[in-house]
Amino acid sequence: MKASLERRNLVSSHWGIYEPVADPATGQIRALRGLPEDPDPSPIGLAMLDANGSPLRVRRPAVRAGWLDRETGASRLDTGRGRGRGREPFVEVPWDTALELVAAELERVRTAHGNASIFGGSYGWSSAGRFHHAQSQVHRFLNSIGGYVRHADSYSLGAARVLMPHIVASMDELMAGHHGWDVLAAHTKLFVSFGGVPAKNAQISAGGTARHRVREGLASMASNGCRFVNFSPVGADLEVPGAGAVEWVPIRPNTDTAIMLALACETILAGSHDEAFLASHCVGFERWRDYLLGEADGIVKNADWAAPITGVPARRIRALAAEMATVRTLVNVSWSVQRADHGEQPYWAAVALAAVLGQIGLPGGGFGAGYGAVNLIGSPERRFAGPTLPQGRNAVSEFIPVARIADMLLRPGETFRYNGGTHRYPDIRLVYWAGGNPFHHHQDLNRLARAWQRPETIVVHEQVWTPTARMADIVLPATTTLEREDIGYSTREALIVAMKPICVPPGEARDDYTIFGDLARRLGAEQAFTEGLDARAWLRRLYEDSIPHAAAAGFELPPFEAFWDAGALRLPEPAEPVVMLGAFREDPHAAPLRTPSGKVEIHSERIAGFALADCPGHPVWLAPREWLGAAQAEAYPLHLISDQPFTKLHSQLDFSSYSVGARIKGREPAWIHPEDAGARGIADGDLVRVFNDRGACLAAAVVTDRVAPRVVKLSTGAWWDPVDPGTPGSLDKHGNPNVLTRDEPASTLSQGCAAQSCLVQIERFEGEAPPVTAFELPTFVHR
Ligand SMILES: Nc1nc2c(c(=O)[nH]1)N[C@H]1C(S)=C(S)[C@@H](COP(=O)(O)OP(=O)(O)OC[C@H]3O[C@@H](n4cnc5c(=O)[nH]c(N)nc54)[C@H](O)[C@@H]3O)O[C@H]1N2
Ligand SMILES: Nc1nc2c(c(=O)[nH]1)N[C@H]1C(S)=C(S)[C@@H](COP(=O)(O)OP(=O)(O)OC[C@H]3O[C@@H](n4cnc5c(=O)[nH]c(N)nc54)[C@H](O)[C@@H]3O)O[C@H]1N2
Ligand SMILES: [Mo]
């Protein structure tokens, strides 16, 4: 079967694939529009074009004044070296000067301290395009000069990525393997979700969505008679057209595990568990059953036990358990529930509950891990990895779990546990970031700001003056996807796009590849990095290297020229519907899982062997350190949910008209329940101060009963905007929830991001509010 050429001119982005619209008179591109065949294009990407020419673009290489002085000997490296970050002005310098400075500094650091003193993790979403993917580029570059300290896992799925391979399958395998929406529509009668199926999140898929499927998928399930039960602190997480399709059960945040334990316990007490499936496809059921029935601790984990923990009435849990045992049921957990203290537990409990129901591997039954998290989940399209840039070999073995960056900077030499092993934090002298925004994404930003003072040098490639760029020593201006050639493709989508530039780079912005190529030459690694190829030659190489993978996926790709000339390629329709773990269900001996036993591990000998108090050998209820049941809830009686934003991808395009237009009084909206607002004299639209011991930010109240009482929802995405950057505890004027979140791991198993375990207080903001300055340029001085 052949992929078919389509003669089109398309723009690919994380928000989807768009068509540029040219002015008929001038031929100039003046707007973007959604793909005509996409039933639900995302409005976010439409703003990409106007944001491209923003005054916030980094136009020339810039160096922090204090860092330059240090270079010329005016200040010493070892005295308060990073204190000026985010405070001092920048000096713009010519490209040659900037490249000389960066190359010399890399050379000095690697010679004096070794490559294990360079942190190059560069976490973040970069941009669409398989070649100019900034994070891949920086990794390849640093590998070519001797390696760097990398990061493991992601903020998205820190706990799940470590846990799931031990008990069922890797997250990559599962993400590609979810039942297709067509399978759900045909078979699923009851869809029980923890954290919803947020269509707002499925606007996104890394690389370029051709068809946004979540709303149509949910609608076709509902019209086939599926009912939805959504345990969530936020009702808006699951919206399906049609009256009565969704039952929202408000739940106390971070208590999902208790509901799942109770559902399993009630199923077992009723004798409705699937003993045959548990015996043939699972190990460790008896150990878990004993725990659920309270054999050791005398506590039966039934519905009456779960009710006071979760705030969900016992009879609702019991009735649901009875229903789940009789109809084709899917248990879905959002990614957010594992981004919490003990985040492994709801994932393990969901798998174990699905095992008790005995529907794993049946069409439309079992468990799901993130329907709605990104458009990829539930895609019926072919499985093809697509063209990928080889990153080379990293000669440095040191790494950190991604969300431990502040710990690494603050505690060099100290040990940490990870996935059963013990490792040591390296001593970082130089931080290199391209394609991410840690001063948006990391928890407890005031703590990160302190940790960030420690390295000797921080280099950032950026398109715009983000908070992270402002906190750097050397900022190099990067191009955007609209300004360069690339190949756009998102896994499990049907279109591969030949991305052609539609804008001219502003100022002196350069491609990350060009920048790294120039640095590699200065450091004697040009051949290793570029292999003598220019960007176009790389596109051809990546494309041609993917031809055998396409063949393995059952289709043929045309020659590169034909693809490039036509502009787009459509992959053939998939051969068969995707049924998650169907082959394993059919024959667990012929298609075993890659777990130690080859089966679903309800109890894991391996994890039990790690002897971790915060992640024992089977799913358990462990109260989070910070939740509404904790002692701190007296001072901070509201649980903060910092979810993904509706109007942008993380911090990207925060300054766009679309994102700014959704602000209230220039601040990020904070959803609060009418009872909680009323008790505090807060009216809809009021400016509020959200605070705890770690920090405070301004936001604007949206008073709504779409959040549960005692829950505040403040989405991520606002560029951190402290009154006094660099001063711990400084008020953030814009509404970035990460000034409030805790910088503690989910557990010592995964060390995953646990942003969703966070308590706050909120009050009306009285008086004159300081203006938002996040979208002003930093100060520049001439030298
Ligand atoms: N528009 C948009 N879409 C995105 C992104 C974006 O930035 N913007 N980011 C993308 C990325 S990188 C990722 S990793 C995914 C993340 O996907 P998710 O992690 O699933 O997304 P969130 O929006 O953080 O959370 C989904 C919902 O879970 C609920 N929730 C939070 N805590 C709890 C809890 O303790 N229990 C229960 N039952 N529910 C809870 C919240 O109400 C929240 O609205 O989203 C992707 N999609
Ligand atoms: N409280 C809380 N915090 C969270 C989360 C949460 O749920 N709650 N979610 C977490 C999750 S799941 C994620 S994925 C992270 C998001 O992590 P972030 O790092 O915040 O993600 P982005 O905003 O996508 O950052 C990408 C940056 O790269 C830049 N960039 C884009 N393209 C290019 C390019 O071609 N070259 C260069 N040099 N730069 C480029 C963009 O301008 C942008 O600044 O946030 C995490 N933080
Ligand atoms: Mo993510």
From TrEMBL:
The keyword Signal does not apply. Its cofactor is Mo-bis(molybdopterin guanine dinucleotide). GO terms for biological process: anaerobic respiration. One of its GO terms (molecular function) is oxidoreductase activity. This is Asp-tRNA(Asn)/Glu-tRNA(Gln) amidotransferase GatCAB subunit C. Residues 57-521 form the Molybdopterin oxidoreductase domain. It comes from Zeimonas arvi. InterPro entries: Asp_de-COase-like_dom_sf, CT_DMSOR/BSOR/TMAOR, MoPterin_dinucl-bd_dom, Mopterin_OxRdtase, Mopterin_OxRdtase_prok_CS, Prok_Mopterin_Oxidored. Keywords: Metal-binding, Molybdenum, Oxidoreductase, Transferase. GO terms for cellular component: outer membrane-bounded periplasmic space. CDD domains: MopB_CT_DMSOR-BSOR-TMAOR (cd02793). PROSITE patterns: MOLYBDOPTERIN_PROK_2, MOLYBDOPTERIN_PROK_3. Belongs to the prokaryotic molybdopterin-containing oxidoreductase family. Residues 638-758 form the Molybdopterin dinucleotide-binding domain. It holds the Pfam family Molydop_binding.
